[in-house]
């Protein structure tokens, strides 16, 4: 095998709770994560050593003389094709460890909204780790890939696992859950940028103000998933980061309210935002909501997809 194409799928948070700030500056989290069928496409091709040419990024940094070339299509100019890109760093990590001297040509076609709370960069890195493992027959299993993925980012191990999972710690401690009942997932990203650093630095977990944070019941949501109850799971959706983002960016709340008005079972911001997702049990209502948000001014990008259950990586 000398070439491979992989779909790097996005995620949403069905529940997101922040427990405390850690001494290292990170936060302890409890989240319910879910893969959706919206994806970037990554094409990888093995080349001869150094064959990627003069515009190669990081020539000589993988094996003794391997070359990695990364091209990015789409992303609105917000995704760089350099050694800071997580897809590049994922390839470099494995090629260095296993002293691979062949080159690698990577083409990344962005379809997941950028800086949207959907783990676009992390899922690209996860896809490259999986693909490089297969292309070069490295023999790493899922657990071994996840151990390497956390070096690139806290969401990367989950993106390798995929499906439905409880994430704890900084997001790297994962428990696989049963697949949730299928639903139509409407995504709407407003034309704003939300800094993850801004969100976490303005989160007030210890304030006496009872309205500062409403913690979702993650345990109850996990139980609803185990029981296969879509409606109870959706009822228990919650994201404490909305206490920062909605006051600062009211359009996030407006999109959420619009989805509910259109018949969503529930709607919520994913991750640190700004993308809002709504779950629909009626395909016609989902399509009507997609049309309404696509024609309006609240959202710059709108997508209609569904949950995705992957096969286990071997």
What does the largest sheet look like? Answer: 7 strands, mixed
Give the strand tally. Answer: 11
Write down the overall geometry. Answer: globular
- What is the terminal separation in angstroms? 17 Å
Average of per-residue pLDDT values: 91
Report the portion of residues in β strands.
25-35%
Query: Low-confidence spans: pLDDT under 50, at least 5 residues?
Result: 51-65
Give, in order, the helices and strands.
EEEHEHHHEEEHHHEHHEEHE
Count of runs of 4 or more consecutive helical residues: 10
Report the radius of gyration as a whole number of Å.
Answer: 20 Å
Derived from helix and strand composition plus strand pairing, the structural class reads alpha+beta
**Helix percentage:** 25-40%
What is the gist of this entry?
The protein is α+β, with helices and mostly antiparallel strands and 314 residues long. The protein has helices at residues 86-97, 120-135, 142-149, 156-161, 196-201, 218-226, 230-235, 242-248, 250-261, 283-295; strands at residues 3-21, 27-47, 68-73, 103-109, 164-169, 173-176, 184-189, 238-239, 266-269, 276-280, 301-306.
Structural description of this entry:
By secondary structure, the protein is α+β, with helices and mostly antiparallel strands. The chain is 30% helix and 27% strand. The protein contains ten helices and eleven strands. The chain has helices at residues 86-97, 120-135, 142-149, 156-161, 196-201, 218-226, 230-235, 242-248, 250-261, 283-295, and strands at 3-21, 27-47, 68-73, 103-109, 164-169, 173-176, 184-189, 238-239, 266-269, 276-280, 301-306. Strands 1, 2, 3, 4, 5, 6 and 8 form a seven-stranded mixed β-sheet that branches. The chain has a four-stranded antiparallel β-sheet with strand order 9-10-7-11, covered by helices on one side. β1 and β2 form a beta hairpin. It starts with a strand and ends in an 8-residue tail after the last strand. Mean pLDDT is 91; it is low at 51-65.
